[in-house]
Design a protein that fits this description.
449 residues; alpha/beta; Rossmann fold; Ribosomal Protein S5, domain 2; 3 domains; nine-stranded mixed sheet; four-stranded mixed sheet; 11 helices; globular; binds thymidine-5'-diphosphate; binds magnesium ion
C-alpha cells in the first residue's frame, strides 16, 4: 500500500496544506498549522462483526419530550435518546434562555438534566433561572473541561446533557485554543461518543457570527444528529427555530417564539402576531403568505416611494434581498410601464423576519406600485408568486397551504399565479394572474394607459 502523505491543517479554520505555513491563506491567522499524520493502525486492526439490520432493536418511543411544544415540534416529537443535537445561532438570540427553559421543564417532569454553563457562572444562570421561574432541580456544572463533563454526566446518570456552549469547552488532548476547529471537533467527538455509549441525549449550543462562518457549527454539522438553527432579529421579538438537519425527523418543521420578559414563549398563531399592527387603509402594503418549512406564516411587505432629486435615487431593503427589489423595479418599469427613476424606494418586511421565499416577488410588486400610485389595495389583499424577467408570474410550491392561511385570518382577495392546478379556499376571492401587469389590473393599481 502506498504511504499516505503527511498533511498540515489550520487548527482555526480547517484549511489543508501540503506543507507547514506560517499564516493561513484562508482565515489569515498566524501559527495555526498543525501536522496531521496518516494513520498506521488500519492494517493492524482486527475485523469486527457487523450486525444484521433485522437484529437491531430500535425503540421508536425513545423520545424525551422537552415540554416546550414549539421545540418538540422541530425535533420531530422530542429529543431522541443517545442523539446529539446542535442548537446554532447568533449570540444574544436566546439559545441559553430556550435551553434553560427546556432543562427546567425536563427537571420538573422528573428527569435528570445536567446543564454545563461554560459561558456563565452558576450565579448568573441562577439569576436568569429566577427570571424564567425555572425548576430548581436542574443540575449545574460550571466547567469547561470536556473530560470532566463526560465523567460527570455518566456518574450522575443524567438523561439529558446540555452544553452551553461547545465553543467554551476544551480538550487537553487536542491542539488549539477553545473555540478553534480542532478543539470544537475533539470536544464534540467526545460528547458524541458519550451519547452513543450511554444513551444520554446531548444538546450543544453553537455560536454563529453574522457572517455565519465561525469555527464551530459549520464543522459540527456532520458529526451531530440534528442541527437546529435559531434565527431572527435580536432587536425584534419574533424568533424562529428551524431544523436544518434531522436524522430522526423532518427538516420542514419550524418553531416560532416570542422573547418576553419571562423568557421565550411559543407562538401558536404567528400570522396573527405578524399582522396585528397592520393598517389596511394605507398605500404600499401587501400581505404575503410565506411558508416556513411546511408551516404558512403571513407577513406584511411594505414599500415607501418618494420623489427624489438625487441623481442616483436611493433603494433600501430590510428583510428581503436588495437584488430582488432592484430586479422587481426593473420588471415593473420594463413590463408594466411603472416608472421609479425619479423616486427613492424603501422596502421592508415587517416584524424582523427575513424572507428568502421567491414568492415574495408578487406582493413586493403590488406594494411598490401601491406606494408609487399612493393607492391602497382595495380591501384586505394578499399575494404570492415568483415574477420572472419577462413579467410572467411563476407558480410556487404550497399554493393550497398559503391560500388556506390567508382565508383563516380573513384576507378578502388573494392574487396568485395562474396554473392548471385548481386553487380555492373558503370565503376568499382568488385571482389568478399570468403576468405582473395583469396582477396590477386585478388589484386596480394601474392608472389608465
Ligand atoms: P441569551 O439566551 O443569553 O442568548 P444566547 O444564549 O443565544 O446568547 O439571551 C438573549 C437575550 O434575551 C438577552 O439579550 C436578554 C434577553 N432576555 C429577555 O428578553 N427575556 C428573558 O426572560 C431572558 C432570560 C433574556
Ligand atoms: Mg448564551
Amino acid at each position: 500500500m502506498p504511504r499516505a502523505r503527511t498533511e498540515w491543517r489550520c487548527s482555526q479554520c480547517g484549511q489543508v496544506a501540503p506543507k507547514w505555513l506560517g499564516r493561513c491563506p484562508s482565515c489569515g491567522e498566524y501559527g495555526t498549522f498543525v501536522e496531521e499524520r496518516p494513520r498506521e493502525d488500519v492494517a493492524a486492526a482486527v475485523p469486527r462483526t457487523p450486525v444484521r439490520l433485522e437484529d437491531v432493536r430500535a425503540d421508536a418511543a425513545a423520545r424525551i419530550r422537552t415540554g416546550i411544544n414549539e421545540l418538540d415540534r422541530v425535533l420531530g416529537g422530542g429529543i431522541v435518546r443517545g442523539s446529539v443535537v446542535l442548537l446554532a445561532g447568533e449570540p444574544g438570540i436566546g439559545k441559553s434562555t430556550l435551553l434553560l427553559q427546556a432543562a427546567s421543564r425536563l427537571a420538573a417532569a422528573g428527569r435528570r438534566v445536567l446543564y454545563v454553563c461554560g459561558e456563565e457562572s452558576a450565579e448568573q444562570v441562577r439569576l436568569r433561572a429566577d427570571r424564567l421561574g425555572a425548576d430548581g432541580q436542574v443540575l449545574l456544572l460550571p466547567d469547561s473541561d470536556v473530560a470532566g463533563v463526560v465523567a460527570t454526566a455518566a456518574a450522575e446518570r443524567v438523561e439529558v446533557l446540555i452544553v452551553d456552549s461547545i465553543q467554551t469547552l476544551s480538550d487537553s488532548q487536542a491542539p488549539g485554543i477553545p473555540g478553534s476547529v480542532g478543539q470544537v471537533r475533539a470536544c464534540a467527538q467526545a460528547l458524541v461518543t458519550l451519547a452513543k455509549a450511554t444513551g444520554i441525549a446531548v444538546v450543544l449550543v453553537g455560536h454563529v457570527t453574522k457572517e455565519g462562518t465561525v469555527a464551530g457549527p459549520r464543522v459540527l454539522e456532520h458529526v451531530v444528529d440534528a442541527v437546529l438553527s435559531f434565527e431572527g432579529d435580536r432587536d425584534h421579538a419574533f424568533r424562529v427555530v428551524r431544523a436544518v438537519k434531522n436524522r430522526f425527523g423532518s427538516v420542514s418543521e419550524v418553531g416560532v417564539f416570542e422573547m418576553t420578559g419571562r423568557g421565550l414563549e411559543g407562538i401558536q398563531d404567528p400570522s396573527g402576531l405578524m399582522l396585528s399592527q397592520r393598517r389596511h387603509d394605507a398605500a404600499g402594503t401587501c400581505v404575503f403568505p410565506t411558508v416556513e418549512g411546511t408551516r404558512p406564516v403571513l407577513v406584511e411587505v411594505q414599500a415607501l416611494v418618494t420623489r427624489t432629486w438625487l441623481p442616483a435615487p436611493r433603494r433600501h431593503a430590510v428583510g428581503v434581498d436588495a437584488g430582488r427589489v432592484h430586479q422587481m423595479l426593473a420588471v415593473l418599469e420594463g413590463r408594466a410601464g411603472v416608472r421609479f427613476g425619479e423616486h427613492d424606494v424603501y422596502v421592508s418586511v415587517v416584524g424582523g423576519v427575513r424572507v428568502s421565499d421567491p414568492a415574495v416577488d408578487l406582493p413586493l410588486a403590488l406594494a411598490l406600485v401601491s406606494a408609487r400610485e399612493d393607492k391602497p389595495l382595495a380591501g384586505s389583499v394578499a399575494a404570492f408568486g415568483e415574477v420572472g424577467l419577462t413579467g410572467e408570474i411563476r407558480a410556487v410550491p404550497h399554493a393550497g397551504v398559503r391560500a388556506g392561511e390567508c382565508a383563516r385570518v380573513g384576507v378578502q382577495t388573494l392574487v396568485a399565479p395562474a396554473s392548471r392546478a385548481a386553487l380555492s379556499a373558503d370565503g376568499i376571492r382568488i385571482v389568478r394572474s399570468k403576468t405582473v401587469a395583469e396582477a396590477l389590473d386585478a388589484a386596480a393599481l394601474r392608472s389608465a394607459p
